[in-house]
């Protein structure tokens, strides 16, 4: 069987990967190489898609350590990889990303789609200074600044995707927004007495992005193979930035649309102040450790001070790439509220 491209896809089980892998298999003729440390889980994920055998066979799942550059190089060479989608995070992101890029270089891939984050792409000393000023000590932002600066020096074409803040972050607030209903045969959940969004986004706010839109953008960039979008960064996310007041409005309207306009439910959002940031840091510290807790706190402090989202030119470039407007965040909020309360 001949393939348009053979694509090495990292983080196939992540938020974006779970959208990207089905798109690549269903809408392209690419062979997809999926590295994982848990092959059984990824096999089950692909099997759950219910694909025809000839389509499913284009997914090649390889078990190993993505942090081992010799293993990455071997997989790329064994399977004839010519394109890669690189999505990484973690406390050793810089080290791992650099060694993987070395492996891609040794394996002579031809094109890379790199998942970065929203910020102005630094091209001059002034740009770099401004970007660093925004990110401060947010390490998982700074690493992406560094990698973007390195990519043009490598012997393959590349396209950078810069997503904004995931819409699905809102789902983490579900326990603070609703509680199980005792009514038999009714809705599974009812609003809490004081429903609350927990993400402290401040008064400037952030653009919101769907993992599905990021996946669609990635497929377009993979198909492009560095012809039109080489050395370009495409920001993915809504043009509108949603701050505390906007998010309270959207979620309150969504709840009342289900419960009836006579409902007096009001959804509030955590202030981006020392008290709530302390609370957030304490929660993340228990769940993910002290370093990530401090890191996430610094990120929300930066968003509150600078905002987080595309300008009109960047938004137009995204629409051009996708061939459509990005998905509607407010419509999604209404659908989510209906699924909980309807």
UniProtKB/TrEMBL annotation:
Stretches assigned to the NAD(P)-binding domain: 12-187
Q: Highest taxon of the source? A: Eukaryota
InterPro entries (UniProt xref)? NAD(P)-bd_dom, NAD(P)-bd_dom_sf
Short name of one Pfam family: NAD_binding_10
Full protein name: NAD(P)-binding protein
Taxonomic path: Eukaryota, Fungi, Dikarya, Basidiomycota, Agaricomycotina
């Amino acid at each position: 069987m001949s393939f348009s491209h053979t694509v090495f896809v990292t983080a196939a089980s992540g938020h974006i990967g779970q959208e990207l892998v089905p798109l690549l298999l269903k809408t392209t003729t690419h062979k997809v190489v999926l590295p994982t440390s848990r092959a059984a889980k990824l096999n089950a994920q692909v099997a759950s898609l219910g694909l025809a055998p000839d389509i499913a066979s284009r997914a090649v799942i390889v078990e190993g350590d993505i942090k081992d550059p010799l293993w990455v190089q071997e997989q790329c060479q064994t399977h004839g990889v010519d394109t890669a989608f690189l999505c990484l995070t973690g406390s050793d992101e810089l080290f791992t990303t650099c060694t993987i890029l070395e492996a891609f270089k040794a394996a002579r891939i031809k094109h890379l789609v790199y998942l970065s984050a929203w910020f102005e792409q630094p091209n001059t000393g002034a740009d770099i200074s401004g970007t660093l000023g925004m990110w401060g000590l947010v390490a998982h932002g700074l690493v992406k600044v560094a990698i973007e600066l390195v990519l043009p020096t490598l012997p393959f074409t590349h396209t950078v995707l810069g997503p904004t803040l995931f819409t699905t972050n809102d789902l983490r607030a579900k326990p603070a927004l609703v509680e199980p209903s005792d009514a038999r045969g009714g809705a599974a959940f009812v609003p809490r007495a004081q429903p609350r969004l927990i993400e402290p986004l401040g008064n400037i706010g952030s653009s919101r992005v769907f993992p599905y839109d990021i996946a669609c953008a990635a497929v377009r960039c993979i198909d492009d193979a560095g012809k039109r979008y080489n050395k370009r960064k495409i920001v993915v996310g809504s043009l509108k930035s949603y701050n505390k007041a906007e998010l309270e409005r959207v979620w309150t309207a969504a709840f009342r649309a289900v419960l009836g306009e006579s409902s007096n439910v009001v959804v509030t959002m955590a202030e981006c102040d020392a008290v709530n940031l302390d609370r957030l840091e304490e929660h993340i510290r228990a769940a993910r450790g002290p370093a990530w807790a401090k890191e996430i706190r610094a990120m929300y402090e930066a968003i509150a001070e600078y905002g987080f989202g595309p300008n009109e030119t960047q938004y137009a470039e995204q629409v051009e790439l996708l061939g459509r407007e990005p998905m509607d965040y407010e419509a999604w909020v209404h659908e989510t509220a209906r699924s909980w309360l309807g």
